[in-house]
Every structure is written in structure tokens, then in C-alpha cells.
Amino acid sequence: MKLKPWLVAGSALLLVGGLIGWKAVSASSEADAAFTVETVRRQDVKESVTANGEIQALSKVNVGTTVTGEIKQIHVKDGQTVKAGDVLVTLDQERFIQDLNRADLALRMARQDQDTAEATYKKLHATFLRQEALFKQDLLSLDQFQDGKLARDNADIALQRAKVAVQAAESQVALSKDALDKTVLRAPMSGRVTGLKAEKGEMAISGQTNIAGATLMVISDLGEILAEAKVGELEVSKLRLDQPAEVQVDALPGIVFQAKVFNVASSSDRNPNQTSSNIQEAQNYKVRVILQGSRTDLDRLRPGMSARVAVLANEIKNTLSVPLQAVMEREDRSGGLGLMPRTRTTVFLVKDGVTEERTIRLGAATRRTAEVLEGLKEGETLITGPTKGLNGLTAGQKVKLAKAGAAK
Questions:
Q1: pTM here?
Q2: Class level of CATH domain 34-43+319-333+340-401
Q3: Cα 183 from Cα 56, distance rounded (Å)
Q4: Interacting residues of 233 by C-beta distance below 8 A, sequence separation 6+
Q5: Residues 6+ apart with CB under 8 A from 347
Q6: What gap in Å lies between CA 287 and CA 229, rounded to an integer?
Q7: Which region holds residue 357: left if phi is over 0, alpha if psi is between -120 and 50, else beta?
Q8: Least confident among 76-80, 267-271, 395-399
Q9: CA–CA separation, 255 vs 250, rounded Å?
């Protein structure tokens, strides 16, 4: 059955009318959106700086060796407490013993050569003295006298060389003894073995590098424990020595350690070999805080454990403040050449249902609240949301306010 033309046209008109009516209602709903408000008031503001880090001992030493050799014996275990001077590792000593024996033999030979040179010198010196007396009495020719003096002088030179050879041989013996002594590694300080990396039979490599075998173990003095965190360049300027802090360790949930700032790095931890193309990247600075707490809880900590550090950078009592959700940043190119964009901080106030845009200056801030230094007075009504509607506000606009207790 065919529909009559007038029926089709009527249906189309009803559909179009419905769409127009829906859009009108939707537009009216958006125009009548209710804004939430808060009264500008005074409260305490605690500004904190938070960062991720790890637990470290205040004092620690990487134990390595200055001689290269096979590890024959490891005398400690990971986690063991040691005292300064305790034997940690013994290296293969055979080569060093042979070097010392050769050095001792060379020293004995050098001393024998010195004794021979000294006896020769004494003999020739005595002969020269007799020849000198005869020469003064004209009983010895000039040639004979000069030959005797030359022989004595050459003997003296040989004696001095023999003495130098003895000194060199003595130095070699001392070096060989030192190398042999260094095959026995002892604890440089009292503490706990916190990073045993060596295995019996491996090669211990001399030097303080990252080469495998260079660091055999780590001795940590866990009497004082700290958390080391990396703080971004935008926040590190807020930190100072002795500021209070709190530390949470992932391995010990539910425990909050009190702490204080011990050190703030004066330079970033950027790799000195970093290329210039990366100079504009955000930099991090190492900040260390010393943990306080019960000895029982502190003894449960281990170097390398993940930690979360929060430093109380600033605390202002009873100060004028605003919620950050009400704050907006506007681009401002006024002043100067207008080439570099600036920002100004603004909020919207409402009085008798009409908005007013106000430029303010903020101070310390938390995640939700910021201190107001300029631009607002206590008791003024501040528009806080919704965010979408707040971004579209203009000064002098009439707005509808949400009822008290409405969701924000």
C-alpha cells in the first residue's frame, strides 16, 4: 500500500520539529548549568615535595682489589656483620710469592755488589791518599798521581751506583710484599656485607670500575640509614637541609618512617658525556634524607629497597587559600617585546549571579589547595566548577549556582 504524499510530508515535519526542540532543550540545559562555589577562607597549607627513591646506608664502601688474581677463598657470607680488619677474601698467592722471592734474591745480589764496590773504593781511596802524599813530596809523577785519582773516582761512582741498585731492589721487595699482602682482602670498616658479588674461582679484577670482578662486595654501616631520591629541577629549589620528611618503604607496608633532609645535590645527575641535543631535558637532583625510627624497624631495611619520600617543604598556618580546581592559567603577552608568552593566574568570582575574573598571585601549594598572596579577600565567593563550564566563563556573565550540598 502506498502512503499518501501529505502523510509522508507531515511525518517529516514532525521529525524536524522534534530535532529542533531537542537541540533547544539541550542548549537551554547547557546555558542553565549550575556552577559550584566556595567561600575564600583561611586554613593551614602544607607544601610537600614527593619523589621515588631507594634505601641506602649513610656510609658504605665498595670492596675491590688493586691486584688481579683468582679468588681462592671467600670468608664471609652476604648479610654477615664484620669488624674492621676481618679477612674477607683470599686470592691466589703463588705468583706473588714467586715475585717476592725473585725480589729478595735480586736484593741480596745488589747488596753483595755494594759490598764489593765499597771494598774496592776503600782500597783505591787508601792507595790514592798514599800517592797524594808522595806527589806532594815530588816522589811521584803527575801521571801516576792522576791515574790513582781517576781509579779512586771511578770506584766511588761504582759504589754510588751499587747503592742505588740496592735501593731499587729494596723498593721492589717492598712492592712485592705489598702485592702479596693485598691478596688478602680485609674489611676497611665495620658493618654488614650487603652486596656480595664474588664467587670462589672467579677472577678478581684490579681497579675501581664497573667491570665485572672489580667490586667484590659492599660493606655498609647500617647504624644510620637514608633514603636517596631524585627530585625534578622545578621542585628541588624548595628543599633545604634539616627539613622534616616522611618515608614509606614498599617492603614494609603500614610503616611510616620520620626523617629529615641530610643532603641536597648542588648539580644534576646528568651524565657528563650526554650530548648537547639533550641539554633541554628536565634534570633530576639527588636528595638524601636520614631515617628515624625504632631500631627494630630500621634493622629490617636493606640497601636498594624501593622507597617513597615526602619532604615538608613549607608550612603556613592560617593563610588565605583557594582550591586548585578553581585556578586557571591564561596566556599573557603584554609587557616587553611580547615575543615570549607569559602566564597569569586567574579565578572567577561571583556576586549577585554575575561573574568577575580576578588575577591572583599564589604561594605555597598542595595537591588541592594553594596559598593566596595577592588578589583575593576572605569571604569572597569563588567559582570552583564544573571544569568544562569554568573554562568557558567570561567576565560579566550571569550564571546559575548549584544549591548548597550539591555534588561538585
A1: 0.63
A2: mainly beta
A3: 29
A4: 268, 282, 283, 284, 285
A5: 322, 326, 327, 328, 357, 358, 360, 375, 376, 382, 383
A6: 5
A7: beta
A8: 267-271
A9: 9
